[in-house]
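A note from the maintainers: we've had questions about how concatenated examples are separated. There is no special marker in the raw files; a new sequence line simply starts the next protein. For clarity in this README we add a label.
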Amino acid sequence: MMLVALGLNHRSAPLDVLERMSLSADLVPKALAELTSGEHVNEAVLVSTCNRVEVYAHVERFHDGYEQLRDALAVLTGVDSSDFADHLYVYSHDEAVRHLFTVTAGLDSAVLGEHEILGQIRTAWDTARLEGAASVLLEPLFSHAIKCGKRVRTDTAIGRRTASISHAAVSLVEERIGDLAGKRVLLVGAGEVGAGVANALARNADIELTVTNRTHDKAVDIAESLGGQPVAFDSFEAELANVDIVISATGAPSIVISADAVDAAMAGRSDRLLMLDLAVPRDVDPAVLGHDDVGLLVLSDLQAFANRGLEERQREAVAARHLVDDEIDRYRATNTARELSPLLGSMYRWADAIRTDEIDRHSNKLASLDMESREAVEAVTKAIVSKILHEPSSHLRDAAGTARGDRLAEALRELFDLT
């Protein structure tokens, strides 16, 4: 058995491929069931954000597990595996651990050091546990990865000067339309990214907020939390004529706000409309830019703004990577020690079972022995087993917490069929 990680992100795949592979939050439970439905995958965690789609899984064998996970992603997204396989990155064993720790630390993000990914990893892990897709096999890994992410943010300054997507949105909106006080804002979608941007705008100025979502109860909850008003999803297009700013961040698989709807909303008004499309795939038809009085900002615009001051954060990233290395070493030592005791116990029980079976097999020959001689046979055979196993046990303990130790433990399981 082994750990594997595979996926696509903003660096490995073109935007159009990443958009097609994106899975909304409401599809994650179904996705987890599909990922773990075959015989080769024991547990799995799915991370799906605007910049990445990744699966971390405990599999029986690498190639079988990889093929099951790849094919499951194809089924779930409706994208033929030949269209995305070349963009997949795949890691196993220590490389998979390092990738997860690096992601959780914010070192693999589009905005170096950003905070949101830590919460997204935690949510992915919680969801996998709730759905029964992950349990004891992946628990030590994700618990330690989240701990690593927290430590990086506490012990380094990598995130202290990082402009979040929400902060970038406020700054860019102010650049485009000036003072936000009294501006009318429409939030389309009730996801974390859109709600975060709306909250940032509301904290920065006294805005008038309207919220819509396909699930109306979610729109009501977000509106109440941000001091806004909900509106039915099937009538939100009428609101486009009455607002100054639109934030759209749904999980829809196709365009939500058409160019025709925007043209109709702009008829008869002379003031500008600024639209923020933060969805992957995109919510807003790019053709809206054909209207002189409509501005459109997409997620990459916000990410570029948030990455200002990158040089300073890159210096902090050196320290962050050292902390990641340290936490990986700690995880490996802790995990190996956790697995080592039961493994050694299994090895000794296996050997002792052979010893007792052989004594039983020769019981007729030993029947004439008195009690003292029988005890001597027990003691001698136990001593032989102990001496034979002493050397491999010592090697395993000495190598605990290293890649060599992991290889030795796996070899021992394979050779003697231990559990």
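[label: protein 2]
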Amino acid sequence: MIEERFEQIKSVHEIAPVFLKDEGRIEALFTVYFLALLLQPLIERELRLAMDREGIEDLPLYPEQRPCTHPTTEQVLRLFSLVERHRLLREGRTVQVFEAALTDFQRQVLSLLGMSEQAFRSKN
């Protein structure tokens, strides 16, 4: 399992060689990679357990909404990759916030992950 996770560092996260001289920056970068490796299986486990609990056999996470029985973090992140929120500023002050428009399926996945839609809403 750990070999698979490290393989995903190169493929999913597209990690490439980085030339850092400062030890603090090297440690920080490895900490971020380590956290990504920890979060990835937690997201997958949470989603799969929720699917079992709700009696959901598959989710349309593959391209063309094909069914997926064992969702991966990569697929979940791709589902939300185009979600955007914009702020209109005038003289450094927020005039208007254009909130992210989530689909029903995105809301369902958030619910399965135990997250609120408010995670995508402005705090302003």
